[in-house]
């Protein structure tokens, strides 16, 4: 009995050590090279993470089959690869090109070292009514329009994120039927070949701060300000940071 107990204890210790080691491989530093896939998983339907659930994707490419991408047509939860409920954590995942919506966060969520290649409509959509969602590390490339779409309320905090050949890294919804005063923060972002880091609605009380970042296409591409609406199309009101709706500091446009 004693030897059996010792064996079980040893196995539990090994499993715990392996789990800790696996977690330690999650790289949330700024990376500017797209990671190699460790394999491919194609899903017939979106995978849902329950409230508080964590998933380590093992750096596999996760995608939909058949494809749910319909160019820039607005999709829903059913078109996503992952649907995250409140408090869910998704780590070490590459989102493939054959989906319309990537990741949908129905409540606050955390995305650690998540990557998107050939973004279709949106890479990630945040729908929480309040609270903070986090994007730590990771990156996206080849997005005709938005990468991170903020449709709900609260805050989206982005750190150490890389974007290449994208439209907007972030957009606060310009024409959602229910609008919010949204907050967003960006720390140590690098964008190359993109249009703008953040598009926000000044008339709705949005605020964004962008700091310690590299924007290689010029300082005028840090913020775009809009007049948000609940129907129809929003209008752009400014193409530069105003220090209030959009505050910036330590932004480099070359040599980074």
From TrEMBL:
GO terms for molecular function: pectate lyase activity. It is found in: Secreted. Residues 1-17 form the signal peptide. Keywords: Calcium, Lyase, Secreted, Signal. It catalyses: Eliminative cleavage of (1->4)-alpha-D-galacturonan to give oligosaccharides with 4-deoxy-alpha-D-galact-4-enuronosyl groups at their non-reducing ends. Its EC number is 4.2.2.2. GO terms for cellular component: extracellular region. Its cofactor is Ca(2+). InterPro entries: Pectate_lyase_PlyH/PlyE-like, Pectin_lyas_fold, Pectin_lyase_fold/virulence. It comes from the Eukaryota. This is Pectate lyase.
